[in-house]
Amino acid sequence: MKVPFSWLKEYVDIDCTADELVAKLFSCGFEVEEVIKFGEKIDRIVSCKIVKIERHPNADKLSVCQVDAGEYGNLQIITAATNVFEGAIVPVALDGSTLYSGDKIKKGNLRGLPSFGMFCSGEELGITDDWYEGASVHGILIIKEDVELGKDIKEILQLNDVMFDINVTANRPDCQSILGIAREVAALLNKPLKNPDFSYSTDKTISTVNSVKIINNDFDLCQRYKGHLVKDIKIEPSPLWLKRRLFLMGLRSINNIVDITNYVLLEIGQPMHAFDVKDLSDSTIIVRRANGGEKITTLDDKEFILNESNLVICDAVKPVAIAGVMGGLNSEIKSDTKTVLFESAKFSRDNVRKTARTLGQRTDASARYEKGVDYLSVENGMNRALHLIDELKCGTIACDEYDLIDAPIKEKVIETTFTKVNGVLGIDVPRDTIINILERLNFKVDACEDNLKVVVPLYREDMDSYPDIVEEVIREYGYDNIVPTLLKTSSITSGGRNDAQQTTENLKNLLVGYGYSEMITYSFVAEKEFDLFGLDKSAKIRLKNPISEDLAVMRTSLFPSAVRTAANNLKRKNERGRLFELAKTYENKNISSIGLPTETDHLAFIAFGENEDFFTVKGVVEGVLETFCREQEVKYVRSTERFMHPTRSADIYLCGEKIGFVGQVNSEILSAYDVEKPIYGGEINYGLLTKFFNGKIIAKPVSKFPTVERDLAVIVDENCLYEEVINCIKFSGGKYLERVMLFDVYQGGQIESGKKSMAFNLVFVSLERTLSVEEVDGAIKKILKNLKEKLNAELR
Amino acid sequence: MEKFEELKQKAKEEAEKISSLKTMGDIKAKFIGKNGEITALLRGMKDIPADLRAAFGKRVNDLKEEVSAFFAKKEEELKAAENALKLKKEAVDITLPGKIPQVGGLHPLNIVKNKIIDAFTGMGFEIFEGPEIDTDYYCFQALNIPKDHPARDMQDTFYISDNVLLRPHTSPGQVRTMENKKPPIKILSPGRVYRADDDASHSPMFHQIEGLVVDKGVSLCDLKGLLDEFVRIIFDKDTKTRFRPSYFPFTEPSVEVDVTCCKCGGKGCNLCKGTGWIEILGAGVVNKKVLEMSGIDSNVYSGLAFGLGIERITMIKYGISDIRTLFENNVSFLQQFNRR
């Protein structure tokens, strides 16, 4: 909301500086985002009188002017302008001056003659005809008044105004106007508000009600509709003061009637519309929902096809305005308009918002209605517009009006207690201070002992209950008065992460210890990534309004994001890296049970660089399972995931359930990212994994008796899996076999081709006694026998 | 007798000449070995008159001990020299770089998130993580933001269907907690949130933490106290907070909370745009309507809520100027945060 300081001062006697006001507004909830100083850059431009004009001896199009610039002396200025004349008073930019645009002016030499500055046009001073008559002409600005020479042009043209750009929060639509801000400023400075003049004179012989018919069919979308007739309209240019106000706010002056409606929107915050009555069929206005397919051409010459959710203002046969958005071309104000019907209405903000959005037609009026207009501003807006008609003497005002309203207007009453108000604050604001603050804000206060009864002004539709009162009190009293306390009346709670949350942190820390850095990637991916990885699309969730096709589908797997991240790192010449992410995947399953998609935590990890291979990433899985799911049955089988290397990847089964995969990424996938180096990684369904968590520790005693170690090298078929051998050894090793560790796999040399040697270190121990050599030999013998029978293994 | 002195002298000279432990044995044997010269003296004992034998024997043994001592001394010297040589050969340049075990690190956003969580769990808060895909009711209506409310303009929400959406804030966590838990409630609800925005200071996915206290008689002073404590833990002990009025549909009164600029300490710099203050979070007293919609008696209990963006805090804390850096996951960038 832009508010000129000068305009604000019309309603409140402001005795502080602009900067002080900014600080005060800030502390009570109105942040001034920018202080715009109009004409701030203009410097060293003064009035001067042209004494003599001669033709430039060396240039046909230039004139040499001698000027009197008062205290700046007599100067020679060379100009190409043709509208200057001897005796004219004009602005001159002196040597070292600055124009409105910020451009600097220095003395110069034009075709052999010196020029000690430059005459200025209106544009160079940032103004148009709306600010000063003649400012829009092509040429130099001629000052009509008899002013002192050498005087600062900013003073002559009143270019010293300060404009506040105030951020008004969504709960305060009443402050979307100069008057609204003025009310706040008056309360803040504890000064009376000088309301604008709402009075006007009428002609008893003219009646709105007898001239036009107004019907409101849809009070749910239009809670108040006022119509007032004005005859003998004289369409004229607006007076300078009005033009200047509009100019400051960035609006162009059109004519008096249009300017009045725009002015009322800025000043009162009420959108107004004026219909040319002669264009209204049957002199009738009907407020109703549009019929489907009904058409209207708006003032800006755009045609819209309407539907039943759009509220329209119609005459007896056709729409003449889209309610709250824009008037129709068919009833616009023209230069020969004689009788107008002024409209001031309260339309429902939701409906205006919807209509403006679906039609793609957003206007100053619709922007205002979307924020919300109140019952009072409908009245103030109409009265102010009629006052201006009267003041500008550009029409004869009817003595009555239509005021169609959904229900009698009732002021809201909030009843609370001073104790309650101070209870929320936690401090004791004195009773008189509370009353004073509320009264300054135009609340009617009825205080009786502790009881506080407050009547809310009509324009404060945001006020509902006592917390609203609390907010009003503290924002005026000052938040700096709040004293910090640490939940002094509250119960003690233990707090902290629960077990599951703590385990998740432990898992992350384990991975960090393994050299993995945590990544965070977007939850949404491109649909084409599903295709590249061959992921199941049946449960995918698509956004209705993605910001781009690359971020359009919620991911069902973290792995594509991890591979993409690794590829990007390789492209950025990070030769090695280990990354993990613990995040959610989203699937549209079980939607019936809780009505929302399924969100499942997954863990993805990715590694690249010369030291990485299948085993470094498999080691991560083993480490995680060993830490969190010890003593659960784990199985690795060749992976069925199409995006993984067919012979260097495994699916991970925990207690018979697939929980993920691990290994090398299929090079075909990597070539889609222009990556040639191998990338390794995996993904685990963390939600599923947590079912198998086995964090309970029961300490086992460590044997006091000596261990017996044996090394065993066996020759097996080269296709024989480690898993088969180790399982066979563990199965047949007996109860004293404490642990088995593979320490060598060897092929070639003395080993027959097609075979390989595997060497294991076996440790035997008993908790009760020292094992005898015979016992251990017996166990070894049994192991060898079973290896021979099951795997045709020979002792090397 | 001269022979004794001669032998002793000879042994001493030869022992001193030995240059390596390898030759020591042979030379030592020449004197005190089985066939050594001193051993030979003992063998000549039978020619000594019986009454002098004892004295002779003692003298030979003394000589043997003296000579042994010469060799023992030399042996020690040689060993020390050899050991010194060995250590010299093993010498390393101790200024060469060591082999650091590779460790990873948490993402800076989660480092900050954990710091925030630790600050509040210490004050009795629990953690609750709600769904990221939620209904219009939990994301808006239950937070006093009805359909077509202008406050919905504050968030550009991603929709999945008319009624299901990606949560634009962590505030639904408040509602879900209040529906399922009786006061006293002290929870933090961290997580991913989504808004249709993408530039240097906005990311379509980002992280928030929502805090909620519901109990008897909690006030704005308690909110101030909690947040003062929090900013001292997150930034430093001299950080101060400032409340200023604001508007959120789910709190009333609502405040924006600024902290003294951590870069200039409040003097004014480019980070705080010369004001000395940085906006870090929104907070307030939970709107009565929100309490009631979630089934909490607003006549008995009152609530405090605050919500903050983890990205914003992280960027301020670590001097990161472009939010997108946080989601590129460049290893070189991430490794900077391995310091503890």
Please explain how this structure is put together:
The complex is a heterodimer of chains A (796) and B (340). By secondary structure, chain A is an alpha+beta fold. Chain A has 6 domains: 65 residues, Phenylalanyl-tRNA Synthetase, Chain B, domain 1 (2-Layer Sandwich), CATH 3.30.56.10; 114 residues, Nucleic acid-binding proteins (OB fold (Dihydrolipoamide Acetyltransferase, E2P)); 198 residues, Phenylalanyl-trna Synthetase, Chain B, domain 3 (Phenylalanyl-tRNA Synthetase, Chain B, domain 3, 3-Layer(bba) Sandwich); 69 residues, Phenylalanyl-tRNA Synthetase, Chain B, domain 1 (2-Layer Sandwich); 194 residues, BirA Bifunctional Protein, domain 2, CATH 3.30.930.10; 88 residues, Alpha-Beta Plaits (2-Layer Sandwich). Chain A is built from 22 helices and 40 strands. In chain A, a hairpin with a 3-residue loop joins strand 19 and strand 20. Chain B starts with a helix and ends in a 6-residue tail after the last helix. In chain B, 41% of the residues lie in helices and 19% in strands. Chain B is built from 12 helices and 9 strands. Chain B has 2 domains: 88 residues; 231 residues, Bira Bifunctional Protein, Domain 2 (BirA Bifunctional Protein, domain 2). Chain B has 340 residues and is of the alpha+beta class. In chain B, strands 1-4-5-9-8-7-6 form a 7-stranded mixed beta sheet, sandwiched between helices. Chain B has a two-stranded antiparallel sheet with strand order 2-3. In chain B, helix 1 packs antiparallel against helix 2 and helix 5 packs across helix 10. Chain B is rod-shaped.
